[in-house]
Design goal:
homodimer; alpha+beta; Formiminotransferase-cyclodeaminase, Chain B, domain 1; Alpha-Beta Plaits; 3 domains; seven-stranded mixed beta sheet; four-stranded antiparallel beta sheet; 11 strands
Chain lengths: ~300, ~300
């Protein structure tokens, strides 16, 4: 595995024509830039493409992906349930190994500038890369969506970070930024009462007084006849997954409801699983040299 | 990382002269056979050497290690608290990746035969490699130790599996076998009452009615003024570590005592940590494709 590793998760505004999404994703795939996941959502008419690679190769791959998406997606005819402002809607970079958040911010700025210059698409920097507090939140940037963005982009408060204040006619605008790894974590409750899921979600999420790095909503799972607390953990290092689970469990118990089970949607890093195991076992310490495979990789490295 | 990986953990009867132990361990170290841990115990006058490698390279490394140990250790002058019958006392092979237990049994037989032929050391096959039930347990084989083994080896019931029924004059005999990975797991109890540790140990260990793959003893931790349940988990796949921890916790609670903390001595495989995390989070499933780094390694492999 390369020593510097970054994840990039472009979201593109096409989730119905699989061949188009696969073509766009394949454009990114090249030596040093691996396509590790591709997830289409037909209702949202949107896809999530997960790439992993060394910073330089990843940047090249992302630019190829944008190039193909601009050719193949026209927002003027795009309809879907999910809000969007661009053919490539959002491009987050996530530090995985051997790179800092500051490195990813720098990478997002380089890629953002290149997108503006090569494709004449206006670029907004968001999350850790944001140039002011107001632009940190993607939802705030995207407000008005593609249809109203020709107006919004001329507002002096909303001049793009890169590129002129002119929307790309078919590809719109794009948000590029750096953020922590996001874990999508759902906990299913052994009840059909949606109010319990909504109450538990409200208790654990940041926006209503809960844990700092948790977003949560209550949903029904129609087929199973139960309900779900659906969460995004936006910083598992500071708000660890086991703490979130245990709080959900306690809040559900308070309503007399037990946990039916839970699931990870997409991927979870080892660095989130190890602490969960260590906390469950009350380990006083879990050094990486104590984990067999980590120690072997270290020894292989020393031996080189 | 190589696709076939075996661990070998030779125990040698020298734990005081560090330079001797390091020389013996270094003899094993060669391309494809990595030395990943070295642990000396002066009171026991015994050392545990942890090697990892592809089966063929590992076998070569182990034979070099035995060769050096025979030169440097003389059991006729050896004293230590731990029972032993050989200069190299025991050589267990453990399947880690891409090899089965049957492969490790076969490997242990090959290495055992080579030890008998090259060094004229009688070899007993134990654990999964044992040729009869009576030889499965190392303690039973080792009974009488080096001092009484010249007698025992002539008993028709105790003829060696490889080599003539003659003890090596200075290096004694050796047990070679295959077994599952062993996790040394200690749980500290928030009490100074040794009876509680002994009671909990008796409740959880196999020999007195507890969990199948658990050995346990109660010890005082003099410096910290608390007590410890010290365990060997001999098959973490069948008796998972979180289940052991939770049973210890319940049994301690029954005596009004809570857990102060726990520790892994040596190493623990990922394959033991992932299920502990999954169980603690009540995950309905934890596929390896859901673990980011496993998925990346898979994608790197596909890309080759």
């Amino acid at each position: 595995m390369p020593s510097s590793l970054v994840e990039c998760v472009p979201n593109v505004s096409e989730g119905q024509r699989r061949e188009v999404v696969e073509e766009i994703a394949a454009a990114a795939s090249q030596p040093g830039c691996l396509l590790i996941d591709l997830s289409l959502d037909a209702d949202h008419n949107r896809s999530v493409i997960t790439l992993v690679g060394e910073p330089r190769s990843l940047a090249r791959g992302v630019l190829e992906l944008v190039s193909r998406a601009v050719e193949r997606i026209d927002l003027r005819t795009h309809r879907g349930a999910h809000p969007r402002m661009g053919a490539v809607d959002v491009v987050p970079f996530v530090p995985l190994r051997g790179v800092s958040m500051a490195d990813c911010v720098e990478l997002s700025r380089e890629v953002g500038q290149a997108i503006a210059e090569r494709f004449a698409i206006p670029v907004y920097l968001y999350e850790e890369s944001a140039t002011c507090e107001e632009r940190r939140n993607l939802a705030t940037i995207r407000e008005g969506e593609f249809e109203e963005f020709s107006q919004k982009i001329r507002d002096p408060r909303w001049l793009p970070d890169f590129g002129g204040p002119v929307l790309h006619p078919s590809a719109g605008a794009v948000a590029v930024g750096a953020r922590e790894f996001l874990i999508a974590f759902n906990v299913n409750l052994a009840t059909s009462d949606l109010r319990v899921a909504k109450k538990v979600a409200a208790a654990v999420r940041f926006s209503s007084g809960g844990l700092r790095y948790v977003k949560a909503l209550g949903f029904p799972l129609e087929k199973r006849g139960i309900v779900q607390v659906s969460m995004n953990l936006t910083n598992f290092k500071k708000t660890p997954i086991l703490r979130v689970f245990e709080l959900v469990k306690r809040e559900a118990e308070r309503c007399g409801v037990s946990i039916a089970g839970s699931e990870i949607v997409g991927m979870i890093p080892r660095e989130a699983l190890y602490p969960a195991a260590a906390a469950a076992l009350q380990l006083e310490e879990l050094a990486s040299q104590s984990i067999l495979e980590e120690r072997i990789e270290e020894a292989l490295h020393e031996g080189r």
